[in-house]
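Subject: Sanity check before I submit

Could someone independently write out the structure tokens for this chain? I want to compare against mine line by line before I put it in a report. The sequence has 296 residues.
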Amino acid sequence: MDWLGYAQRIQSPNGVYILAWSDAETVLTRRGEYRQRKGSYALFENEDLILSGKLQRPNDGKVADNGNFIFNDWMFQIHEKGTFYAIDRNGETLIRKRFRANLFRNELSLDGRFAVCQTANSDNDDGARLTFFDLKARDILWHCHPPDWGTDSYEFDADKEILYLKYRDGSIFRYSFGGEFLDAERWEDERLKRINGFELHFMARQKINSLEDIFDSRIVNEIFLLLETALQRGLDPYLNEQAAIHRTMGEMFEKLRQMNKAIEHYEKALDLNPRIGLKRKLQAIKQKYAGQDTRS
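---
Independent answer below. Compare away.
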């Protein structure tokens, strides 16, 4: 078969189409110079070649039951960038969207109507972006930065108009075809199970900065839960971060006027990191409250 000359290939769900492609290759010219030769692709219908073309670095090909197909073009890049392509069975480009970030994953609906692509992390707004395309309208319907960009796969439910984001740990989260994140509340619960101690400490600091009333017991309890969980979440080798968390806990107890507990955590912070900058403060607190009952 003609597609055997290509490095990769994929078949449409109904078995009618085969999309085959090869990435760019480096070749030696007659002048003894190395240069990159563009990658190529081909579309077969019932084993007959109906279309062929070239892109700089075609990857992650998908083909639908109607012959529409997509690629992430990794491009000949010096800086982070990539171009998403959607093309129909006649070779007409339906979507060409360039991003200032490397392309990570993509997916195409079974009927070829919708597609998504996801970029990897980057230092600009295109980084970690999920973009949803309507190929019939040849337009972007919406884009967002999902809570976790490391999605393993996507699935379209055209009847319910839902896009499923699937992760390797078995978690599934949903976006509507209109771009609404349908599982925002559940994500917050799941997020606490996923993230590391550094991130939990950062979340706690954010809550502290936004805390208007120290007597809001619900928020205060949430902060302490985040900090206590952070100490249990992979920070054994990171003594300085453990010290920083104990310092934060001490500051919270100091705000609550629970000075015994504040002193306890300040002392733990100093034991872990003597240069954390608490010696004078701790000494002053001990002198001020010497002989007093510092419990709340």
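---
OP: Matches mine. For the report I'm noting this point. The mean pLDDT is 90.
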